[in-house]
Amino acid sequence: MQFTFKSFVQNTTLLLGTLIVLSACNNNTQEPLAANDPILDSVQNRLLVVPAVQPPIPGLDVPFTTYKVAVDEGKTFTTRTGTKVQIPANAFVDAQGRAIEGIVEIKFREFHRAGDLIASGIVMHDAASGDYMETGGMFEIEGLQNGQEIFVESSKEIKVDLASYNPGDDFNFFELDQKKCHWDDQGKAAKETPNVERKKSIALINKSMPKRPVRPINRKKLLKGQYFELDVNYQKFPLLKAFSDVVWTYSGEGVDIEKEAWVFETDWDKIDLEDSGKGSYELKLSNGDKTVSTFVQPVLAGKDYEKSLEKFNDKIMKNYQAIKKELEDKRKALNFQAEVRRSFGINGFGVFNCDKWRRIPSLSFMPEIAFDEQSGLNETSQKEVLYYMIMNAGKSVIPFKNSGKNRFRMPKYGKKAMVALLPKGRVAVYTSGEFETIQSNHLENTDRVPMVLHTVEESINSPDDLSMVIDYAMNH
User: Fold this and answer.
1) For residues 384 and 15, is the Cβ–Cβ distance under 8 A?
2) Which of 9, 57, 92, 220 could connect to 100 by a Cys-Cys bridge, CB 3.0–4.6 Å?
3) In this structure, what DSSP letter does residue 14 have?
4) To the nearest 5 percent, what fractions of the chain are helix, strand and coil?
5) Angstrom distances, CA of residue 24 to CA of 49, 51, 229, 260, 406
6) Domain limits, the chain
7) 182 exposed, middle or buried (CB, 10 Å; 0-12, 13-18, 19+)?
8) Nearest 10 degrees: Cα torsion 249, 255, 261, 264
9) Element (DSSP H or E) covering residue 120
């Protein structure tokens, strides 16, 4: 996706309001916002109560991938990120605890980038304590048979080797209790291990990548001495008689025999010519004392050259390009995989993550938030906008709303950006560079800081689109 921003509008009308952090709880009580919240200093306002999982953009969520599993066999599958899930045989029961037979559907999805975290609507902070999560990878897994929920049998365990794009050994493993709106700490996460399969597969692809075929050579373009003939006893080597009128030249692969005079001065007991399938032939020469192997190609003229060139373009090159593209696509998919993984055993379905709680020093100021004219917002519609503070290289996300006169607390260290979700699938951003300007200039002279968010022209159609916008905002 390519995206563009409209230019600033000189006389932008400021649409002001309170920034309220969204709570992770969905219950019947509302607690005052804690004074040590990482984003806000609150005085009178209460938390906006939302469900623990609530996708903020209708129709835009991280999709599940569905895997068919034969219960009596189990299954192991690897996702596009490199996560490996191992399901044992006879692992499922129904709501009454009875063993399940036949085929079940296992639905699996992952969250690694800021766009995934926002689109999922899974809350990654604790507004009451002021802590927020830095993710090392999160996933959700469900099980169904004929549309009915299934469960993991109590003595069985599903092993998940979770891909992580955030290395380190200071993460814990959590399970989301959606009823209590709480992340249950399952203890220290396993030490990360390298994705060995990824490394081996990439090395194998690199080794298997075909060399570019040798284009036929027109004899008219070679000088005498740039090609040679094979002086062959055709009674001894009758299969080579078909090449009796052919002259040859070094193809560029293997030993350059044209520079090795001894090759032409030696009597060879055995000669083999084998078509390499890429426009050249492997020439093998041997006698009782020596062996030499190289690649040569026929030097053609007239109609022979034209036929060979046609075959080269229509068959050999097309075959080469198809094989090369297939291998390059596989290598690209492997390069997308994470280099490390962390292993967990789970005894049920739900939302799990490998995260760590964080709290950082912050700077406080009064924001004057505004949008460029391209946003199409007015005072009423702006109140429905959801804002997200992005931190820790896109591994931490905190949502909030704008509807009053609260102070804004900005993380003091590291890159950060703000993303606003607008109507009709559009977004606006406040970039990392603009936050740096606030930190270095405005706070020295005034407590009130204007913040004009820039609207992205294109609509956001996937979590990947959203992540690309966030990456832009974090690096500009």
Assistant:
1) no
2) 92
3) B
4) 25, 40, 40
5) 7, 7, 81, 77, 20
6) 19-195+339-474, 217-328
7) middle
8) -60
9) helix 114-120
| 3-state SS class at 12 | coil
Amino acid at 20: I
> What's the fold here for domain 19-195+339-474?
Chondroitinase Ac; Chain A, domain 3 (2.60.220)
Are 366 and 407 within 8 A, CB to CB?
Answer: yes
pLDDT tens track for 208-267: 998 888 777 777 777 666 778 888 887 887 877 777 777 888 888 888 988 888 988 888
User: Exposed/middle/buried for 219, CB within 10 Å: 0-12, 13-18, 19+?
Assistant: middle
How many Å apart are CA 263 and CA 294, to the nearest integer?
A: 11
Q: What count of Cα atoms within 13 Å lies in the side-chain half-sphere of residue 231?
A: 6
Neighbours of 51 (CB within 10 A): 14
CA distance 316 to 324: 12
CA distance 119 to 166: 20
418 dihedral zone (left: phi>0; alpha: psi -120 to 50; beta): beta
The amino acid that residue 461 corresponds to is N
- Which sign, positive or negative, has the C-alpha torsion 258, 261, 263, 266? positive
Which has the closest alpha carbon to 26: 105, 97, 127, 117?
Answer: 127
Please say if the pLDDT value at position 90 is more than 80: yes
Give this prediction's pTM.
0.75
